[in-house]
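anyone seen this seq b4? input:
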Amino acid sequence: MHTAFRFASSLFLAAALIAPPILAAAEQEGQQEHHQQQEQQRRYYDREHKDYHNWDGDEDRRYHEYLAEQHREYREFNRNSRAQQQAYWNWRHEHEEHH
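predicted toks r here
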């Protein structure tokens, strides 16, 4: 009986020592996933057309299309000047897909 108590105590102690690093790693992974989702769900306001655009895979594909058509090298959209961003939104509205 004394041996069973020691064994159970050892298991609880081991679990108590192992749990914090495992929980911290899981929390960090969750934070990274949340950050990636935020990156994927960026939203931009088009002042001239007074609407919002969600930056997702489709918008990114269209942005690359715009850059190719304009013979411009890739640059992250949010690093462009406001005028460059507006030029893209103007192009985007001219090339709107109608479903």
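The chain has two domains: 1-40, 43-94. DSSP finds three helices and two strands in the chain. kinda curious what u guys think
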